[in-house]
């Protein structure tokens, strides 16, 4: 049905765009950048460009999260895929500001963190991530 098609669309977006932009091209490079890389102007330019792409993606998500979750009051598989990505984004420099600029996403993320299932499965952030934030 249409709802299943929309759900598959959000899953596809999460795996093909959000994972690439947030995790693979922003979080991982930030975590594994050494001191030399962090002071490389080219690295800063790339991370700023990724920040702009992520801000755009969060704007798209912000419209979709206007009713609470992607599918209204139901926490569904696409939400389960997106929220952990936001968790790691939030730990990065500039992450809280990016999420904060998308108020519906921020509200959904706050609701996600308050869920008992999220608290019980909270991924432990390695010291390296926490030091970079």
Automatic annotation (TrEMBL):
Top-rank taxon, per record: Bacteria
GO molecular function: transferase activity
Entries under SUPFAM superfamilies matching the protein: GST C-terminal domain-like
Keywords for this protein: Transferase
PROSITE patterns per UniProt: GST_CTER
Pfam families: GST_C_3
InterPro entries referenced in this protein's UniProt entry, alphabetically: Glutathione-S-Trfase_C-like, Glutathione-S-Trfase_C_sf, GST_C
CDD domains assigned: GST_C_family
Annotated GST C-terminal domain residues: 1-133
Full protein name: Glutathione S-transferase family protein
């Amino acid at each position: 049905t249409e709802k299943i098609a929309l759900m598959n669309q959000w899953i596809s977006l999460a795996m093909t765009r959000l994972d690439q932009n947030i995790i693979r091209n922003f979080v991982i490079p930030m975590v594994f950048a050494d001191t030399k890389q962090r002071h490389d102007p080219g690295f800063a330019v790339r991370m700023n460009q990724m920040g702009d792409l992520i801000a755009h993606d969060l704007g798209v998500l912000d419209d979709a999260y206007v009713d609470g979750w992607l599918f209204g009051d139901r926490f569904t598989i696409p939400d389960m895929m997106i929220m952990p990505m936001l968790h790691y984004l939030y730990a990065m420099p500039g992450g809280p500001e990016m999420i904060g600029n998308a108020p519906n996403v921020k509200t959904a993320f706050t609701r996600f963190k308050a869920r008992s299932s999220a608290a019980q499965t909270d991924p432990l952030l390695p010291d390296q991530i926490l030091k970079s934030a």
